[in-house]
Write a structure and sequence with these properties.
2 copies of one chain form a homodimer. The first copy, chain A, has 434 residues and is an alpha/beta fold. Chain A is built from 17 helices and 14 strands. In chain A, helix 9 links the parallel strand 7 and strand 8. The N and C termini of chain A lie far apart (86 Å). Chains A and B meet through helix 5, strand 2, strand 3, helix 9 and helix 10 of A and helix 5, strand 2, strand 3, helix 9 and helix 10 of B.
Chain lengths: 434, 434
């Protein structure tokens, strides 16, 4: 490894005071004040539709096509399928099967109860009509994200599932993305990337229909575009930020396994973060040594080296402190490798997804165990769930009151409405019972 | 009624083409580009804490107090309770009981399934730790909203429920708000209103703790503040906008009832909107006449008169068209008064809350039937649910894989990770199985 890479090291911090935790666990928070031109792109797509979209694709995706070529055609799907190896097909089948089983089990029951005589209240789960998925291009074709978003959309019963993704250097969409899109029930795929694609799915263009909710990861421009449209017209899955992992481990953990998970997180990008929290000084030191050893064998060293510098190993005295630190950090991914890992997990209140024991690497959830990999980052796990079946549905309430029911409930409504100074509300009961 | 009031009339539109619907159902969409100084207020609270908050309360709420007086004290709760009539107490009890029954029925089951041998995936519902409720002051003390937000928070098991509300002209918080807050398990109440209160709950001050999610209605400054903090640090319930109702009615409906519901909606504020959609020309005309008659008896004519102008009666040919129009508009409140109202309701895919038949006024859901009244406006019902039990919880996924389980799943993970170019992900399986 060259000198520059070696300069970035992960530090061990021993027994910090609780008052220091916030600073140790600090994430980079980007100011949302400057949108670097994203707002203008969104505005131009809203006004200019296909024409504006095509001109942005020419600039940013080096793609010079007509509106009629935006949508991926059946023959392109066929061509993509032919290029996928049998081994990858089998792996994708297994992942889809597991993701399908776990998300199908999440179906909510509709409910109906009579809250008082003659007053029936219902709650009904209804699929969101049209959802838009965004799959970034960039350094790797994230076909696993197609599975994670399209499978629950299909189980929820969304009528239309559209997908935008940029073409690669070849001018084509990654074949793995098309293959998974077809297998998972995506209705239409469009060759469009970046904030312009987000705006197109939010406002609709002549070719791309407007979605009711947009899902999927992306760089900071895509994230900004999602934030902008979510204020105006179109729901989004969740606030997005750099990926992160926290590992809680004691002396029963294997430093080789811990290190591999640490590095798997860091290869995602230069802004990734990994935090190892341990009660074992030995484990901390062994992991630090193992980091250099394993890193030397990996290909994405550039990303890893950069994010090693924002990663940290923290030594604490007790299991209880480890749990407190995890709940304060609210990690996207939380790996628990302690002797009593199940007991520890029960105390976790803030995390996106939890990985238990020595044989549950985070990569299992990233790809194939069945859980979703679209998870809240940046501490949002305090209030947000990861993508799950309910992300693709909404709950509508329905009430039906009989004349007798209203005779019972009416006076309550009138009294409360009058106390709030809303006599037209009281009147709507009065005219019915009068 | 004076001339000016009579000038604003609700129009009847007969059998519009579908291409005209969007224009007829147009809502006022405020530009989110200008925040009218709200961003600066939020920033100052983040930096200045209590001191900044107190100075804003002095300016906007005419409240000149010390930090130690921000929190409502036990004796103030006692004083409030003494001022509430027995009639109102009984009404509030009934409303709380119904809201509690309906929301308690919404508890989600945790799930656990073995997606393949040795691979167990779980989904667990966990309460959000600390939630912040905002209750506006203004023309009426909205104590019903305290019930609608605090009851599900309590059922969900949120550890802390804080509430901010401005004082009235008397310098005190409305006694109805304090009474309901205490009954529904609110932990602490603070005398703070407007965007400064939202920022205080998002970032925390020396006195007000930072909440993980903020709920509640407010004017456009409060809404803007919620949007700003939701990009930075704190989740919010949903995008908020003016209240609205759509009524689907045929010749079996009673124009007196329809009119009362129409007017109840409009008294909310000058930006409210009501839309009556009917297959009966007679009903349209009778409702128009009845509007003048009933309005004359009501007190909030100023609001009603203003919002009558943005309200409309639409005559369509078929039930099917009515359903289509409702799904396109995605109303916050949808009243269905047709002969086959249950059948009609089954076809509705976009609405916040639905009110069925002649004896279910919207005001029932606003106060006391059991359903929640915090609902998506502005067409957001296409993707958002109203506030419900799950708004106060998040879902954490947990997975546990045995060594044998990883032997089965590992090759799938490795194949997919390598295909995405992420060899550190593949490595985290390899080190465990090697």
């Amino acid at each position: 490894m060259d000198q520059k890479i070696m300069e970035k090291r992960t530090n061990i911090i021993y027994r910090p005071q609780k008052s220091q935790w916030q600073n140790i666990l600090k994430r980079e928070r980007k100011s949302s004040k400057n949108d670097y031109g994203t707002g203008l792109i969104v505005e131009n797509i809203e006004k200019g539709g296909d024409k504006a979209l095509l001109s942005y694709l020419k600039i940013f995706d080096s793609l010079d096509i007509e509106a009629s070529e935006l949508e991926v055609k059946p023959e392109e799907f066929k061509e993509a399928e032919l290029s996928i190896s049998e081994e990858l097909k089998a792996a994708v089948d297994c992942a889809i099967s597991n993701v399908r089983k776990f998300h199908a089990a999440q179906k909510s029951q509709d409910i109906a109860i009579e809250t008082m005589p003659g007053v029936v209240c219902r709650q009904k789960n209804v699929p969101i009509n049209r959802v838009g998925l965004y799959i970034p291009g960039g350094t790797a074709p994230l076909f696993s994200t197609v599975i994670m978003l399209a499978v629950p959309a299909q189980i929820a019963g969304c009528k239309e599932v559209i997908l935008c993704t940029p073409v690669g250097k070849s001018g084509k969409v990654a074949p793995e993305v098309l293959y998974c899109a077809k297998l998972c029930g995506v209705t239409r795929v469009f060759k469009a990337g970046g904030p312009a694609a987000i705006a197109a799915m939010a406002y609709g263009t002549e070719t791309i229909p407007a979605a009711d909710k947009i899902f999927g990861p992306g760089n900071s421009y895509v994230t900004t575009a999602k934030q902008i449209v979510s204020k105006e017209i179109c729901a989004i899955d969740m606030p997005a930020g750099p990926s992160e992992v926290m590992i809680l481990a004691d002396s029963t953990a294997d430093p080789k396994f811990i290190t591999a998970d640490f590095l798997a997180q860091l290869e995602h990008g230069k802004e990734s973060q990994a935090v190892l929290v341990t009660t074992s000084e030995n484990l901390a030191l062994e992991t630090l040594n193992e980091l250099d050893r394993q890193m030397a064998t990996l290909s994405r060293q550039e990303y890893i080296a950069e994010s090693l510098g924002r990663s940290v190993i923290v030594v604490l005295d007790t299991q209880e402190q480890m749990v407190d630190m995890a709940n304060e950090y609210a990690p996207e991914h939380l790996i628990i490798c302690t002797e009593n890992y199940r007991e520890t997990a029960e105390k976790i209140t803030n995390a996106g997804s939890i990985f238990l024991g020595n044989y549950t690497p985070e990569s299992a959830g990233d790809y194939a165990s069945g859980t979703n990999h679209t998870l809240p980052t940046g501490g949002w796990a305090k209030s947000f769930s990861g993508v799950n079946l309910s992300s693709f549905t909404k709950k509508i309430t329905i009430q039906e009151i009989t004349r007798e029911g209203l005779q019972g409930l009416g006076p309550v409504i009138e009294t409360m409405a009058n106390a709030e100074g809303l006599d037209a509300h009281a009147n709507s009961v009065k005219v019915r019972l009068g």
